[in-house]
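Researcher: Go.
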Amino acid sequence: MESLLHALQPLFAPAFSLWGAPVTWLEGVAFVLALAMVGFNIRVNPLGWPLAIVSSLLYFFLFWDSRLYGDASLQIFFAVVALWGWWQWLRGTTASGAALHVRSLDTRGRWLCLGALALAWPALGLFLRRFTDTDVPWWDAFPTAASLIGQWLLGRKYVENWPTWIVVNIVSVALFAYKGLWLTVVLYAVFVALSVVGWRAWQRRAAAA
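Model: Structure:
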């Protein structure tokens, strides 16, 4: 990993400063791609998935360099799951065999997602605390665990992915501010607003369906 990070050092060169902190070229490109990805997701356009793959790989290197190992590992998961999500949006079907469409979880599905979060957050937090040198194991673990659920919900076109992302993004804003990743703080603050927009748009789609 160290040799790969060394090879990518030109991308870690400062492009400009934001609130007194340098913003690298890598962070800037990832920022633009991530915004475009969310825009496509709101419109239920599958082109968002290949953008997700590229931006996730860029953010992997950025977060690893910042010792946010949970969030860094999550980006690899995002890149892999984006391939699955891309296929789901192009060829996926519901349990009845119909093409995937925007819809809401039932009560049982919501409780299962909350139960999965209640198990995954402490398990991941303990892992990060014991096996890595991160200084924020619990706050790194929460958005990581919640994002796993949000990504599955998004891939299966469930409306509930958007409130999940709202929570993830609010926690991430505080986490990245602590790490001084100010452009990424701006990005995730914008994500909060876009997640609200996406939630309303998908609720309308689900009601129309």
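Model: Strands lie at 14-18, 21-24.
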